[in-house]
Request: fold
Amino acid sequence: MGNETRKTNKARGLEFIEKYFQGKVIDIGGGSDPVIPDAKVFDLKDGDAQYISKYEKREYYDCVHSSHCLEHMVDVPSALSQWWTLVKVGGYMIITVPHEDLYEQRIWPSIFNDDHKATFRLNQKDSWSQVSYDLAEISASLNNVKILDAQIQDNGYDYNLQYNKISPKYRKIYRWQFSKNTIKRRLGELLYKLFYQNHYANHNTFGGLPIDQTSSNALAQIQIILQKIK
Reply:
């Protein structure tokens, strides 16, 4: 995924940005793409976001924002709870995460980001993923929370290119690139480069291989907006 916050802000529009990103704003995992220029960025160099309350003041921020960071946490509910402690009463927390069906596309571990530790769905009871969380459900468990909005954002996403009809043979081959066996891993990497990057990405004909549409202008994510109430 690249420049997801920038792409998301474009979809959000100026009115959204002016409404929610006022006062003291912290962007967890913001890196070089903060949600607004004046946001305080908390990233790896600042500490472990899993335990962010060790580094940041509780109930200090008017808005806590995080884009595509929660899926990297070892304990997702605990991290979300930690982040929530930073929000002032009346303030907001806005989280975006990859949607498991649009981004991971029923492949786990994720072939597009091998540091992902969890997948996410929205208002959906069942999941194909054993590490799946319903973002609305875990958000509703926070103290003094009001869910203002939760939505799937799929701007520019082409559902016709989803990895949903690939044969078991191809699934197996493309998982080889994550194998602990050196020979199998190198063979998988070679096949991925040969068929996906050089063939399917250009011609869209090779058996429905997975495409990371977020590498261009598409969104494949869930956004939730929370407000802390008394």
User: Anything to note?
Assistant: The two ends are 36 Å apart (CA to CA).
